[in-house]
Specification:
Number of strands: 10
Number of domains: 3
CATH architecture of the largest domain: 2-Layer Sandwich
Number of helices: 12
CATH class of the largest domain: Alpha Beta
Pfam families: HTH_30
CATH topology of the largest domain: Alpha-Beta Plaits
Shape: globular
Largest sheet: 7 strands, mixed
Order of helices and strands: HEEEHEHEHEEHEEHEHHHHHH
Protein name: Fis family helix-turn-helix (HTH) domain-containing protein
Organism: Tetragenococcus muriaticus 3MR10-3
Strand content: 15-25%
């Protein structure tokens, strides 16, 4: 049963990009979105049936038992399996990929990305790599090179979205579906790019969405910024990323500012020399620094 048919049956239901934590609604996974249905209209039998539909629609494939994996953290608002650290989600869209190669691909990814904590393949065309933070975490550009090599090995074509690292304490169901919407939006509006991230995708997306209502953007601000970094980003934006000019604005030695920039970039895995990254940071401080 597809989403349109369910919406015809439950006329008060509505679509969101992420599941709800509101006990008054039941969230049903429907392809790349969630249908929120008011609980008060559902019998116990209907709830069980709709939950079964939700599971079947995810077409879940994984090398791990989903009861103990990140599956429930992304789809059922459950806490993440780990109780410390930061993690990012790398979404991968596959074309021309042979399902028989799944195990070999999983092994290759775990070798190349040794801090991978889980691999979720929701269909033969879509998967998620969950990676723990490390200082050796690959950049967006490095990941593009990795997946170009994998494409050559497996005679496939992949496109991916590299999410930001988030604390284990965050709601990864919300984070995942907002990052997924950025990915889908990027795929629809940029048919040439192979790799997307928040900085390269958010501008077009938030033209039609309120950035202050985004859990993802609020989360990035709370995790990335303390007062010294807020001042640093404001100065860098004002001087168009020029480090020497920004240092003068801050009455700071250039080497001191360089140290702070390096520290920020290492923690956030951003590159402030790229205007997309710098603009994302500037938008965050303008939107949430109250």
């Amino acid at each position: 049963m597809n989403r349109q048919k369910l919406q015809e049956i439950y006329s008060d239901a509505f679509v969101h990009a992420f599941p709800t934590t509101d006990a008054n609604y039941l969230s049903i996974a429907m392809e790349h979105s969630f249908l929120w249905i008011p609980q008060k209209y559902l019998t116990k039998t209907e709830k069980k049936l709709l939950q079964a539909i939700s599971v079947s629609n995810t077409s879940y494939i994984s090398s791990l038992d989903k009861e103990y994996s990140w599956y429930n953290s992304l789809f059922s608002n459950k806490p993440v399996p780990e109780n410390k650290g930061r993690f990012r989600l790398i979404q991968v869209e596959f074309q021309n990929f042979e399902t028989n190669d799944l195990t070999a691909l999983q092994n290759e990814i775990r070798t190349i990305l040794p801090y991978t904590v889980d691999l979720l393949f929701l269909s033969k065309n879509y998967g998620i790599v969950i990676e723990a933070f490390s200082e050796e975490a690959l950049s967006v550009e490095e990941l593009e090179g990795v997946f170009l090599a994998l494409d050559s090995d497996f005679n496939s074509y992949t496109r991916l979205f590299v999410g930001s690292f988030h604390s284990f304490e965050k709601d990864f169901s919300q984070l995942f579906y907002e990052e997924e919407q950025l990915f889908l939006h990027g795929l629809n509006y940029n048919i040439k790019s192979k790799v997307f991230d928040t900085a390269s995708s958010f501008i077009l997306f938030f033209i039609s969405h309120d950035v202050t209502k985004s859990y993802l953007m609020q989360s990035l601000f709370s995790e990335w910024f303390e007062s010294e970094f807020i001042q640093m980003i404001a100065a860098l934006w004002k001087t168009q990323g020029n480090l020497s000019s920004a240092a003068k604005e801050l009455f700071m030695h250039r080497n001191t500012l360089q140290y702070k920039v390096d520290k920020f970039q290492q923690q956030t895995k951003t590159n402030l020399k790229k205007m997309d990254d710098l603009f994302l940071c500037y938008l965050l401080i303008r939107s949430f620094n109250k």
